[in-house]
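Subject: sequence -> structure tokens, single chain

Hey, anyone have a minute? Need the predicted structure for the following. Not urgent.
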Amino acid sequence: MNESSNAPSALSNPVFRGLWIASVGSGIGATMHDTAAIWTLTLATSQAWVVTLYQSLLSLPIFFLALPAGAIADIVDKRRLSMRVQLVGAVIAALMAVCAFMHWTPVWLLLAGAAAFGCASAFGMPAWQALMPEVIEKPLMSSAIALGSLALNLSRAVGPFLGGYLVSAAGPAPAFVLNAISFIAVVIVLARWRRPAPAPRPNAETVASAMVAALRHVRYSRPIQRVLLRHGLFTFAAIAPSALLPLMVKNLGLPGSSYGFLMGCYGLGAIVMGFIVLPRLRGRLTLDQLTLTGGFLSLAATAALPFAKNEWQLAAVLVPAGMAWLAGMAQLNLAGQSVFPHWVRARASAIHLLAAQGGISIGALLWGALTQRFGIAVAFYSAAAVLALYMILTLRLRMDRFVQMDLSPLPADHSHETLVVQPAMEDGPVRVSIRYEINPDDEPRFLTAVAALRDTRLRDGAYRWNLWRDMESPAVLWEVFLVGSWQEHLRQSERGTQLSREIEGRVLALHRGAEPPLVKHFLHLEPGSADCLPA
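Reply:
Had a minute. Here:
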């Protein structure tokens, strides 16, 4: 087994180790807060959907705000943005603690606090995830992602136990205070990290153009679409055990400390999977096989939960449910990190979060509504049926090869600097035409290869692409694509990856001309305009 398949190996990096420990502490604070708030909410209302609404409000802001937040994170300093978000979280937790000490925690306040934390997470999570590739080496990325999932679930094991004990003994206020302190601890670790200054970006994007570029990239990338579909479907169904657990605890007449203990069992299952099971399976099973394992465990646990009639039976089912959650999430996160290139990294994390958190928020609300109308057993069986569908899709929409894609950046292409006309940045559209000479016998292979190149052009900035045959020289084929402005074309030249070079290489290998393909650049002009003429 190599180092990258050993989950603790990324902790050998001192910067990652500090950030990981801080994230565990912050996660424990957050899960303590959530456990105390959810149990207080469960006791305050008889409506099942209101209880699960708390989980939805934690996730919905991420669904709506993650993309603009990711675009901002790709433009500004990610470390500073992360620090500011943590400070905002500390303020929210402190205000909630003051209200709790005053014994004023109405339902609407608890739900508003969930929404506020969801907004903070929407801006913090893309920046935090985009920082990781700057901290950790690529061979250890699989380990780092597994440790990230493990940190989340370690928090779920310890935080709910502490939160359940505190809310039973002293109300929600102490848990809220400790959460505020945990945010400050993360700020201290980030402040101590001496991150190298980011390289200047003369062609930096605006937030709006960054969002458009990210959505365009997803539109023309089938691997990304496959990962997002599978991730959203998994979280939609697999969230049912944790979302409906407070209702089961209340129905059985158990106290808040039992709710904390049972959520701790869920987190314990994730720890067992992350530290013991996954490191042994990762060298033997493929990514798709591991996600199938997680899907099967989640289906079995979800279908078994309605039969649990006491605290210990619930605990016995929740441990494998937690194992399933980590097994699925770790592999889906790894696939997500593998299909986005460097230039769209924070926006990629945001889009990935959008799919995952959208599934969580919609799933939690739907399972709560089904419980309210038809009973908790129907909700669990419905979630199990969706997990069966997820497993079928896993068999059909495979992701194994995605982790092998080399998306490391290429040096920027500066060939445009030799052009006679040097347009202003806002000038455009720009048309790029490339002339290929293709042997008629090679044309079918060329058409297959250039189809992949088409998607690369459109992902990296073109808004229109066509292939033309020269009617005077039938062996000559012209690739033509349009870019919105000269500045966007310059950005396009900075977005190349090793994978895009391989795709382009397969096209160039079929060119039979003595010289490389002729590349021509054209700038759109309005009739009567004297702009952009050579001096």
